[in-house]
Amino acid sequence: MITGKGDISGWLVRRSPWPLWLGLAAVLGAMAGHVARATPDGGMDNAIVVRAAHAWLAGGSPYDDPHFLYLPSAVLAAAPQALLPPIALRVLVPTAVTACLVGGWACALRMHGVPLRSRFAVLGLTGLSAAFAPFGHLILLGNWTVTAVLALPLALLLASRGRWVAAGAVLGAALALKPLLAPLALLFLFAGRWRALGVLVLVPAAASGACALLLPDPAAFFTRTLPFLLSGHDAFVRLYEASPVAVLPRLGMPPLPAQALALAGCAAGVACARLRWRSADPGPLRLAETAAGLMLSAFLVSRPSYDHYLLVVVPLLLAGLPYADSAARRPWFWLALVPQIPGLMWPYLELPRRRAFKDAFTLCTLAATVFSQPVRRLRTRPVQGRSGGSGAAAPKDDHVYTG
User: Fold this and answer.
1) Burial class for 379, CB neighbours closer than 10 Å (0-12, 13-18, 19+)
2) For residue 330, what are the contacts with CB-CB under 8 A and spacing of at least 6?
3) Is the pTM here over 0.85, yes or no?
4) Alpha-carbon dihedral of residues 303, 361, 38, 96, nearest 10 degrees?
5) Residue 195 to residues 5, 200, 210: CA-CA distances in angstroms?
6) What is the pLDDT of residue 248?
7) Mean pLDDT of 75-101
8) Bridge partners for 118 per DSSP
9) What DSSP assignment string belongs to 242-293?
10) Is-contact 78 52, C-beta < 8 A?
11) What angle do CA 79, 83, 89 make, to 5 degrees?
12) Percent share of the chain, pLDDT over 90
């Protein structure tokens, strides 16, 4: 990490004054408090999971609700919420979601070697909460995507310290709650961590298999949920999907060409992620950008693909800002976030049901930025080597100033 006097990173990683922390606490407290007052059931998406748990406790099938898109293990995980009174849920759910978002940011910072008491720690999280609309949307909805927002940087933090099996266990537990991070299995394949990959697969498989035996229809996830996902949901949900597969047909493109284009983008993203991993440069950016590339590749073709899915990758990439060659230092990264500024109204996109067009722009621009990172490195590395007078690339300072 470059921390000299001529670079902003030196100022960012120094210890933050306490008034900045008060401002951050006020922002997070206001967001969680507003949701607690506005949502009597802890958020619309969390309520879907809680209703599924209620149905199971009453002897029914949680998959009677077509919008319950989780594995059977999520039913058992949601059962404690079904036993709580609504007054407790309306306070605990936004508080827990906010805590997970803070924990994910902290893990991303530590993976990049940034001190938790630094200016960047407090300013970065303040910016995410106040200036990135999906942050507030996730707290409002109470969506279980927040488990992936916490699990991904935690797993990468463990992997960066050589604890790949523990990283696989963390991702496996997250998959048992919501199978959003499944593309990360490719990261373990790239790294050749077969034992850790086995743990990643075994944990959700065992949890879901055991919980499915407690349901009246053990195979309902495969007979009801998967067909619902593959068919593209219902007309209402489709309006909020941000993947090109859903957005391009709304712009007039036939579905088959839209799917082909999205699949081509996904394949290119996986190839770029593989190339990024093979670059094998020192420092945490290799892990972060490879993982982000895999997730963005999946979001281009996944059904569903909502705006709050962006929180899985954006904090992870933003935490690498102090590194001079990170994706967060590129102007396209910041341009991608412009449509997500809260309260900014765009002509013809004012209606909530047209928000998916803004989300698709952010998703595709972020994907292009991350996918181009390995190509950009290959192009600039020979120049760095010649500038040093030899064939080797100039060494980089990956140490963090903590003064």
Assistant:
1) exposed
2) 369
3) yes
4) 70
5) 44, 9, 22
6) 93
7) 93
8) 15
9) -SHHHHHHHTT--HHHHHHHHHHHHHHHHHHHHHHHHT--SSTHHHHHHHHH
10) yes
11) 95
12) 69
